[in-house]
Amino acid sequence: MLRLALLLLLALFHIPPAGAEGVHVLTVKGAIAPASADYLVRGLDKAAEARARLVVIEMDTPGGLDTSMRDIIKAILASPVPVATYVSPQGARAASAGTYILYASHIAAMAPATNLGAATPVELAPAAAPGVTPDKPAAPEKKGEKGAPPQDAKARKAVNDAAAYIRSLAELRGRNADWAERAVREAVSLSAAAALKAKVVDVVATDLTDLLKQIHGRKVKLVTGEITLDTAGLTLTRAEPDWRSRLLSVIGDPSIAYILMLLGIYGLLYEFLNPGMALPGVVGGICLLLALFALQLMPVNYVGLALIVLGIGFMLAEAFLPSFGALGLGGIIAFVLGSVMLIDTDLPGYGVPWALIVPLAATSALFSFAVAGMALRARQRPVLTGSEELPGMEGVAEEDIASEGWARVHGELWRVRSPQPLARGARMRVTARHGLTLEVEPITPMSKENDHV
To answer: Which listed site, 124, 205, 227, 385, has its alpha carbon 20 to 30 Å from 406?
Structure first.
């Protein structure tokens, strides 16, 4: 009866029983970025809330950002649910940041025909030593001799820090710490079979079913203590990214963030130059905020960002200042240099591609010079409106004028002053304007016909 009541209570409040959802499967493809870190961290939290038996992270990555990688590793180390990272499918890889995550996991598994390694910090990798070129590699190391440390102090600090970090993870999980350090210092890689033989990974499995079968009965250490995995007959539940993770994934792409930033800047500038339009300002403000949110998650070079803004300012100034192209050309150069420098890393997938920079720079330049050309043509046109157009216009006297009277000029009634008498209806030409009085001169002699107009 007690068991039945408990089941009814669980059904009534939709509370999943312990381990009811079995294995939660999270999938990461592509670079380790803020979006993937958010997805994995929240996925681990949900698995803990659901009291899942195991979390499997299917991974295929070329690497990623150090900050995102460390957020994921912290979540794995603190997880009350065992985590198995599985490099899958066949042909996948766990390079750079993926290797650290694999080492941090309770179970490290790979599919056949996969590889891992090359964990040197890419953006801080030192330049080649003198005499070493791509077609002339460095001489092989002697037995027992470690690779020469990088000469640059900043790079040396980064590599030493990364090596100590991955060694600590290896020692925590009882894996090959020496090879882990070589993966950082020498950027070496291993195939799945070689990794298993070198005790870098625990399992080589053909699929998830094979993985669960092989790890059944293994002991792993959690923050709560040591447990024995019971993966027999567990159901697989794939946790797909929700709208928040998908949004972060989209705007977290450097190219998308770059486009959003330009749309935001142009939208706000258009609104400032044409107050009251509203739509450009609203769209520009939203795009700029999204871009700033995305850029603050990336390794942004603020000099590059400043050059982009300066370049846009110069190109817009070309339309209003007679610089004869100097401002426009300088703006294009600043815009291109800033775009290249914007993302301060060499990680794959984290630069703004030339295929995007060149068209946007060309479009901005064409727009700038087109506006400048229209402004120049507008300056050369005769004045058609306003008080400046009055001199030279013709009018008709509304009354007999001895020296001063009323006349209609350009459809408006004006007080006019003439050096010669004018009859009502006589035509005149404006020679000057003094406040609200026009100086005029007759252009046709008075006639009898005009007396009756």
So the answer is: 385
* 19/322 Cα distance (integer angstroms): 73
Is the Cβ–Cβ distance between 314 and 331 less than 8 Å?
yes
In this structure, the number of other CB atoms found within 10 A of the CB of residue 89 comes to 14
- Could you count the other beta carbons within 10 Å of the beta carbon of residue 414? 18
State residue 305 phi and psi, 5-degree precision.
-60, -45
Instruction: Tell me the two tokens of residue 45.
Output: 């939290």
Q: Please, which residues have CB within 8 angstroms of residue 204's CB and are 6 or more apart in sequence? A: 109, 110, 111, 112, 192, 193, 195, 196
d(CA 336, CA 231): 55
Helix or strand holding residue 449 (H, E): helix 448-451
Q: What percent of the chain has pLDDT over 90?
A: 34
Q: Is the pLDDT score of 176 beyond 90?
A: yes
Distances (CA, A) of 312 to 273, 336, 340, 342: 14, 10, 15, 15
Q: How confident is the model at residue 452 (pLDDT cuts 50, 70, 90)?
A: very low
pLDDT at 451: 44
Report, as residue numbers or ranges, the catalytic residues.
96, 157
One-letter identity of residue 124: L
Which of 37-51, 243-257, 373-387 is predicted with the least confidence, judged by mean pLDDT?
373-387
DSSP 277: -
Report phi then psi at 202, rounded to 5.
-95, -30
Assign 123 to helix, strand or coil: helix
3-state secondary structure of 60: strand
Nearest CA to 425 among 392, 393, 390, 395? 395
Contact 99, 188 (CB under 8 A): no
